[in-house]
Amino acid sequence: MAKDNSYRWPTTTVLIAFDCAARLGSFAGAAKDLGISQPAVSRHIANLEKLIGAPLFQRSRTGVRLTEAGRRYHEKIAPGLSLIKTATSEAIQPSAPGQVMVACSETASHYLLMPRHNALQEALGEQTQIGTVIFNSYSRKLPLDPVPDVILDWHQVIGSKDRTVLFSEAVRPVCSPEFAANHAKTLNGPVSGWSDLAFLQPGLPNKGWASWDDWFQAVGHPEPPPRFTSYDNYLYSLAAAASGQGIALGWRGFVDRHLESGELVALGNGYVERDNNYCGMLTEQGRLRPIASTYLSLLQQHVSPAEG
Fold it and tell me: How far, in Å, CA of 209 to CA of 221, rounded?
């Protein structure tokens, strides 16, 4: 019996990679947007070209562009992908009527929301529960299950509306009281003399957040450059600072409670202000739910007083 080839369809993963590369004109851009590696995108495209039997892209050092065959194919499949996306979003169950779902980074969940959770929960009332889902700032993709009502991030996120500025970005070094006492002479001197101190940082900087280089540019660089110890994420680097292992960069709005409790002490001459805002944004679903707007307004009220 002859083999039936009528169901030799590309997977949706392959089609999404093709669509993204076609829109951005870049395999690297598609990889970043989808949160996968560039070789994975190249592999998906190669498999699709093998299935179709024709090159879909012209490759060059500056990027890629569709061939005539690729252009015709993209025109056919793009509307279908849009329909699938719309149908999936409509089919997924939204957050429960008595719940507001907040999407944010792990750092924001731990340092911004958890210390304020009880106060926000009390303000909303026991009939409404606050849920949190971790949002990957690198992929820029919103979680689909559960669907968030509110997104917290430094930048506007696709699919979000109505930005509410929670606070402007401001950073300063922090360390444990013991570390500050042991290195008081050095820390009381100019930053240029801090080279022998241990500096702590996340291995992959949070997208949109300031770095040590940003702080050094504002106050001066240690000479020679200091050594840095990297941790998996900002949570670990701040915990390391609290345990006396070195100096971490602290964000106003995130380290307030640790400074108030004395677990950490602030260094330098005040915060370095940056032209960047941490915002709350409503999703399309959140715009239809008054409780989401209420939560965002309450969060702004509870965060803003700590700005001082």
Answer: 19
> Could you tell me the two tokens for 173?
């070094």
Q: Distance between CA 167 and CA 253 in Å, rounded?
A: 7
- The answer on pLDDT for 45 being more than 90 is yes
- Where does residue 97 rank: exposed (0-12), middle (13-18), buried (19+ CB within 10 A)? exposed
Concatenated DSSP letters of 78-93 = HHHHHHHHHHHHHHSP
- Tens of pLDDT, residue by residue over 113-124, are 998 999 999 999
Give the closest residue to 203 by CA, choosing from 169, 227, 237. 237
The beta-carbon contacts of 29-38 under 8 Å, at least 24 apart in sequence, are 32/138, 33/139, 33/140, 34/139, 34/141, 35/136, 35/138, 35/139, 35/141
Q: At 120, phi and psi to the nearest 5?
A: -70, -40
**Residue 137: its pLDDT value, please?**
62
Mean pLDDT of the chain, nearest integer: 85
Number of residues assigned to the chain: 308
